[in-house]
Design goal:
The complex is a heterodimer of chains A (133) and B (156).
Chain A: E1 3-8, H1 12-24, E2 29-35, H2 38-47, E3 56-59, H3 68-77, E4 86-90, H4 95-104, E5 108-111, H5 116-126
Parallel strand pairs in A: 1-2, 1-3, 3-4, 4-5
Helix pairs in contact in A: 2-3
Chain B: H1 3-6, H2 13-30, E1 40-42, E2 50-58, E3 62-68, H3 70-81, H4 90-112, E4 118-120, E5 124-126, E6 136-141, E7 144-151
Antiparallel strand pairs in B: 1-6, 2-3, 2-4, 2-5, 3-7, 6-7
Helix pairs in contact in B: 2-4, 3-4
The chains are: A alpha/beta (133), B alpha+beta (156).
Chain lengths: 133, 156
């Protein structure tokens, strides 16, 4: 079944890289939305009435306006959005940071740099029944 | 006093090794580039290079700079974005270099301070990094070279 995803990163080239990696892995993607920071993501989720239709959010941590940690906290506070799985994709991979994000409710963590197989491995856990190419 | 081992830049063998491992990991896993030769300590980056610097602070502070020859910026951006080289413009090259610097900095710091609390500032493109006395580590690529410099001291 096709998935509806959102990629949150202030770097347009990183958003393109993640999207390309997902498609190359064979994930059936129906819609792939993009946001430049946490606030932009929340506004798009609410403005376009996407509550209930997003299957996964992949987010960076270090972003202007609202960072990934702030986004995660806001998502988990909002009953309508709290069940969306959130995978953090970031260079910031210190033990303390990863621990904080997992406690906040992140589904998984992908440290940059990552090989394409790492993202497939994480998505297999999020979408049981799907296995990457 | 062991000057080399106490140095806070790439004259320090331990820092040089950490930086080398980080650069190789990033180039291979996300840019699909394998350097042609062993990395070479170099006093300067290439004169026509595009340069980006990232500062970091927290349990460790300092900066990391990446300089790539203009001739390899297009191929690197194309590899990263999955595009043909003709489809890549100056803006994509600059954005790619900023992201590349961010990832190399993160990969280096996660090796130096795996349990630390660090913050990497958004890398910025610079004309001249004001670190002329700091050594660079050069990685020859097929179309040019990739140079990195690191200091765990203040940005001069």
């Amino acid at each position: 079944m096709s998935k509806c995803l959102m990629i949150v990163d202030d770097s347009p080239v990183m958003r393109s890289f993640v999207k390309r990696t997902l498609l190359a892995a064979g994930l059936p993607v129906d819609t792939c939305l993009e946001a430049a920071n946490g606030l932009d993501a929340l506004e798009k989720l609410r403005a376009f009435n996407l509550v209930g239709s997003i299957d996964l959010i992949l987010t960076d941590i270090n972003m202007p306006v609202m960072d990934g940690e702030g986004l995660l906290a806001e998502l988990k506070r909002d009953v309508a959005l709290a069940s969306i799985p959130v995978v953090v994709v970031s260079t910031d991979s210190t033990d303390q940071r990863v621990g904080t994000l997992m406690r906040l409710g992140a589904s998984d963590y992908v440290r940059k740099p990552f090989p394409p197989e790492r993202l497939s491995q994480v998505l297999s856990g999020i979408f049981p029944g799907w296995s990457g190419q | 006093m062991d000057t080399q081992n106490d140095a806070r830049n790439l004259t320090n063998p331990a820092l040089r090794e950490v930086c080398r491992q980080a650069v190789l990991e990033v180039l291979e896993t996300m840019f699909f580039e394998i350097p042609l030769d062993e990395d070479i300590p170099s006093p300067v980056h290439e004169p026509d290079a595009l340069i980006a610097c990232a500062r970091f602070d927290g349990s460790l502070s300092g900066w990391l700079c990446v300089a790539i020859s203009r001739s390899c910026a297009g191929p690197l951006a194309a590899g990263f974005l999955g595009l043909d080289e003709e489809e890549v413009g100056e803006e994509e090259c600059r954005s790619m270099l900023i992201e590349l610097t961010n990832i190399v900095c993160g990969a280096t710091l996660s090796r130096l301070e795996p349990s630390g609390r660090l913050h990497i500032q958004q890398p910025v493109l610079v004309e001249s990094p004001h670190i002329c006395d700091s050594p660079w580590l050069r990685f020859p690529l097929s179309r040019g070279s990739f140079d990195a410099a690191l200091s765990t001291g203040p940005y001069a």
